[in-house]
Design a protein that fits this description.
By secondary structure, this protein is an alpha+beta fold. It has an eight-stranded antiparallel barrel with strand order 1-2-3-4-5-6-7-8.
Length: 203
């Protein structure tokens, strides 16, 4: 059985040395990317047991750094994968695109999910994507020496988050399979958040 959902993220990117300076410079320059992604796993049972919790990604990226709106032609998403500290997880994105001039690019992003003891951190941790745009197509973890074009932060805004909640779709041989697929995805997601934040998520 499959599960998919769609999310929209907006923010700012610019040439810079780090994420926040890139965001600030992009805001001044109005270099605003809009990224709309559909994330899909065709086998929820395999997705749940896979330590990488890997799903496919399709969609569009609209950015001045790409010459406008372009298709995401490949890539992957990882849901709340573990880091060296079990109380810290990451949501990872790798998107392959080709700009309007025909040049390949890779968008790499991660969301830092960790308990910092700050208010409303669950929402911010799961909606803020620290994003880098590289020239060229780069497979997983091969962009260390790649040519970085821009860096910054993109975010799921509140209204887009509400829209995301209504975008979940399941496919399966019958109603029980479809309902079960969504329950398995939700259980995995909430379980991973409980690993990080504990307490209040289990009340």
């Amino acid at each position: 059985s499959s599960v998919q959902f769609t999310e929209t993220m907006r923010g700012f990117l610019a040439p810079a040395q780090d994420f926040q300076p890139g965001f600030d410079a992009g805001k001044q320059q109005n270099t605003k990317p809009d990224v709309r992604l559909t994330i899909r796993t065709d086998d929820i049972d395999a997705f749940v047991v896979d330590p990488a919790h890997k799903a496919g990604v399709t969609g569009t990226a609209d950015s001045p750094h790409l010459g406008g709106k372009v298709q995401v032609t490949g890539g992957e998403f990882n849901l709340l994968v573990s880091t060296q500290d079990p109380r810290k997880k990451e949501m990872r994105y790798r998107l392959l695109v080709t700009d309007t001039a025909g040049a390949p690019h890779t968008i790499v992003g991660f969301k830092k999910v960790q308990d910092d003891g700050t208010p409303a951190e669950v929402f911010s941790d799961t909606t803020i994507l620290y994003t880098t745009l590289y020239r060229g197509h780069h497979p997983t973890a091969t962009e260390t020496n790649a040519d970085r074009k821009a860096i910054g932060i993109i975010t799921i805004h509140f209204l887009d988050f509400l829209a995301q909640l209504t975008s979940f779709r399941t496919e399966g041989p019958n109603l029980a399979a479809r309902t079960g697929a969504l329950a398995k995805f939700t259980g995995l997601f909430l379980g991973k958040l409980t690993d990080v934040y504990g307490g209040f998520l289990t009340v």
